[in-house]
Amino acid sequence: MSTRTARFTLDPAFTIGEVNPRLFGSFVEHLGRCVYTGIFEPDHPTADEQGLRQDVLDLVRELGVTAIRYPGGNFVSGYRWEDSVGPAGDRPRRLDLAWRSTETNRFGLSEYIAFLKKIGPQAEPMMAINLGTRGVAEALQLQEYANHPAGTALSEQRVAHGDKEPFGIKVWCLGNEMDGPWQTGHKTAEEYGRIAAETARAMRQIDADVELVACGSSSQAMPTFAAWEATVLQETYDLVDYISLHAYYQPLDGDLDSFIASAVDMESFIENVVATADHVGARLKSKKKINLSFDEWNVWYTADWEEHTKNADPADWPEAPRLLEDNYSVMDAVVFGSLLIALLRHADRVTVACLAQLVNVIAPIMTEPGGPAWRQTTFFPFAQASKYGRGQVLDVRVDSPTHETKQYGEAELLHATAVRGEDGSVTVFAVNRSRTESLPLQVGLNGLDLTSVVEHSALADADPDARNTLADPERVTPHQVQGTALQDGTLTAVLEPLSWNVIRLA
Ligand code: AHR
Fold it and tell me: What highest taxon heads this organism's lineage (predicted)?
């Protein structure tokens, strides 16, 4: 056991901000089997009359997701919204350039809204529009079709298609990863800033209250990072509400300690985008603050995808192929939990975040066609954070032992946050980044009326490579930790090596 104890103090007088429920958003893209045989499989034994898998819906509810971004991702840059509405049998089959697949359009806009309704009132649409191969006119058509009550050609078309009630889509993403050379219709910051501003201005003519997300960088490592945000926001500052961030993490060159400390990058990314947005605001002498939509984040082993594209048969455009079906380990889930902690620690400015993605594609939920659905290791930190991470984030400044990492230098072994619910209860979320040592933890509780430990749940395993699979879907689940105590205003616990911990105090 490590000799040094990690410590921090909680005090309700020192808060970061209120958690926006949209921090627990997710993402459904027309990619691989996320939609087809993921959420939608009309022939599945559990499918309802709309072809939605009930077993998947149950898990989506248990996961606790809120806003669900749709329909992409890279897919949106070739998306023709009108292909995805009307009688399903009449919809065209199209080439999907982003994922070298054939899109049948069997599942479309109306089915997406039906899916959200089936999840429950916590689910909210977050629609991306195509600014890759399309522009202002198509964005306006889609907005009118989706949101205008009735009495115009496009709104009446929706009614004729069976959706009398408008969809009420509030949050719209103005394109996807337009800074990336891989994006169909990739643009320079100046070109994108201009089309984003024009689109935003026009969309606000239909509805001044829409919430708009401008594309930020596809990662902090992009060569245009920060300059991109500054240019785009200079053009769009008064017209948009959010700037987006995307980040995926994986071990590079077998460097596990840096991988485990990935949240160091995520936190610096967030802080650098806040600084850039506020700098533009200051230059424009604006009182408005731009918030952050971290609308794609996860662990993703991209090497598997790169290998797949190298070997792709140029004549092959499969329907719903198995793509990006990462199978997550305990270590991946601990890193994933740490990314959640990073988001919560910045809840004052990150007010939307989407776990990419929801089912089968780098996802917490896996399915087999005609077969079962099960939880990946990453399912558990997300479900626990969504359930217990609601309320005020308390300011957590840790005094922790550190270790050396190749990418980030000295990294604290403890990564933590705490959220105080409306009823005064507090949940501590903590990760021990050490692969070999337990970490003793002491938390001072100032001015908080807390008397008992409700539970200490941990995700950790003697085998950090353990995973849930079709054959063994419950190999990894969180377990209860004994010995965690609250006495005389101090919480004491021991965090197992490489562990995600949820400590609930009442
Ligand atoms: O989530 C997978 C892909 O990652 C998305 O389509 C794209 O936006 C990002 O590069």
Answer: Bacteria
Spatial separation of the C-alpha atoms in residues 215 and 219, rounded to whole Å: 11
Token pair recorded at residue 405: 């990492």
Tell me, using a 6 A CB cutoff, whether residue 132 lines ligand 1. no
Give the atom of ligand 1 at the shortest distance from the alpha carbon of 182.
10
pLDDT tens for residues 14-30? Answer: 999 999 999 999 999 99
d(CA 176, CA 474): 35
Give the phi and the psi of residue 292 in degrees, each rounded to 5. -110, 135
In this structure, the strands spanning 439-445 and 6-10 are parallel
Distance, CA 77 to ligand 1 centroid (Å)?
11
Assigned fold of 20-388:
TIM Barrel (3.20.20)
In short, whether 295's Cβ falls inside 6 Å of ligand 1 is no
Domain 6-11+395-505 has CATH 3.40.50.1390: no
CA angle (212 as vertex; 105, 207 as ends), nearest 5: 90
pLDDT at 1: 44
Write down the pTM of the prediction. 0.97
DSSP state of 427: E
Contact 478 CB / ligand 1 (< 6 Å): no
| Ligand 1 pocket member 96 (CB < 6 A) | no
Q: Would you kindly state where each structural domain of the chain is located, as residue ranges?
A: 6-11+395-505, 20-388
Ligand 1, closest atom to CA 98?
6
Contact call for residues 77 and 98 (beta carbons, < 8 A): yes
Could you tell which of 79, 177, 302 is best to mutate to test the pocket of ligand 1, judged by most ligand atoms within 8 Å of the CB? 177
Q: How many CB atoms lie within 10 A of CB 488?
A: 5
Sites in the chain below the pLDDT cut of 70 = 1-3, 308
